[in-house]
């Protein structure tokens, strides 16, 4: 049985192709003081709704040594809109300020224990997990959100403070699994979206 990465655990490595034509491993981001790995996709309304907020945070903290990395682990069999070609198309249109990686075999999502899109994992300079969970409490309608847990965690971390709320429940669609036994994953969130 697999579980979500726990606070204090090290970031699992990966070697994944990206929409920019390169492949990336964890050590390609060694220069970043803080690493935000988030699991996302092309179609989920929670992702689409919160992408502008995620962009703002990534741009705000890029000058403070924070690097964002987006990973799409969704099955394209279940959701053809999450194919690599569609990812490239989305990046061409949106020009997100982060590399967009494809986890075709879904092994990276399993290693991190990601189960929602979006699902955020924040690692410190030693690549230990210091925050995981949601960005907003209402990512589908950010204008109605009352708290931005991700930004608060980054603000505290970049100012040398302890993270006041290191663990929250991610809010979003369930990752679309392909050929795995995922009974440990919560299954209630917008599986048909």
Please outline the helices and strands.
Elements: E1 15-17, E2 23-25, E3 34-40, H1 45-61, E4 66-72, H2 84-94, E5 100-102, H3 107-112, E6 116-117, E7 119-123, E8 129-133, H4 149-158, E9 173-174
Parallel strand pairs: 3-4, 4-5
Antiparallel strand pairs: 1-2, 3-7, 6-9, 7-8
Could you tell me how far the N terminus lies from the C terminus, measured between alpha carbons in angstroms?
Answer: 26 Å
- What gross morphology would you assign? globular
**Unreliable sequence segments:** 183-193
What is the mean predicted local confidence, pLDDT? 91
* Overall strand count: 9
N-to-C order of helices and strands:
EEEHEHEHEEEHE
- Helix vs. strand class: alpha/beta
* Residues in helices, as a percent range: 10-25%
Taking all Cα atoms into account, the compactness measure Rg is: 15 Å
Read across the widest sheet, the strand sequence of neighbours is: 5-4-3-7-8
How big a fraction of the residues is strand?
15-25%
Biggest β-sheet: count, sense, barrel?
A: 5 strands, mixed
> Count of DSSP helices?
4
Model description:
This protein is an alpha/beta fold and 193 residues long. Helix content is 23%, strand content 19%. The chain is built from 4 helices and 9 strands. The strands form 3 sheets. Strands 5-4-3-7-8 form a 5-stranded mixed sheet. Helix 1 links the parallel strand 3 and strand 4. It comes from Sporolactobacillus spathodeae. This is Peroxiredoxin.
């Amino acid at each position: 049985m697999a579980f979500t990465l726990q606070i204090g655990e090290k970031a699992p490595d990966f070697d994944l192709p990206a929409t920019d034509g390169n492949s990336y491993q964890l050590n390609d981001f060694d220069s970043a003081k803080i690493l935000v790995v988030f699991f996302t996709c092309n179609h989920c309304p929670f992702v689409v709704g919160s992408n502008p907020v995620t962009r703002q945070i990534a741009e705000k903290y890029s000058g403070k040594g924070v690097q964002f990395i987006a990973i799409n682990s969704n099955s394209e069999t279940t959701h053809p809109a999450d194919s690599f070609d569609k990812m490239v198309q989305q990046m061409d249109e949106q020009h997100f300020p982060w590399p967009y990686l494809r986890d075709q075999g879904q092994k990276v999502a399993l290693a991190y224990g990601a189960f929602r899109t979006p699902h955020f994992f924040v690692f410190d300079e030693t690549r230990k997990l210091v925050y995981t969970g949601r960005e907003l409490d209402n990512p589908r309608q950010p204008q109605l959100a009352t708290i931005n847990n991700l930004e608060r965690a980054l603000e505290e971390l970049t100012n040398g403070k302890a993270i006041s709320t290191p663990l929250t429940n991610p809010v979003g669609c369930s990752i679309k699994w392909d050929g795995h036994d995922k009974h440990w994953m919560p299954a209630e969130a917008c599986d048909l979206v």
